[in-house]
Design brief:
Oligomer: single chain
Distance between the termini: 32 Å
Order of helices and strands: HHHH
Length: 79
Amino acid sequence: MEKLQDSLNKKKLDLTGGESVYCINQSQMHVARRLVEEDAEAHPKMKELFDAAISELTRNEQAALSFVLIDHLNNTPRN
C-alpha cells in the first residue's frame, strides 16, 4: 500500500480515459437518469450527493469514485 501511495504522489494517475470514460448500456443510463432526476424519493438525496461530488471533486476524483462504486456493486450481493 505504501508503494502505491508513493507512486500516486510521484505521478498523478489520470482515470478519466479522455473522451471514452465509460461503457454503459444506454437503457441502464436512461433508467439511472430517471431515478436521479425524477424519482420522488431518490431524487433529493441523490441530487445532493451528485452536486457535492461535481463541485468538490476533480474530474479524476469523480472517475475514481465511479470506478470504486461500480466495483462495490460488482462485489456485493444483490438484495
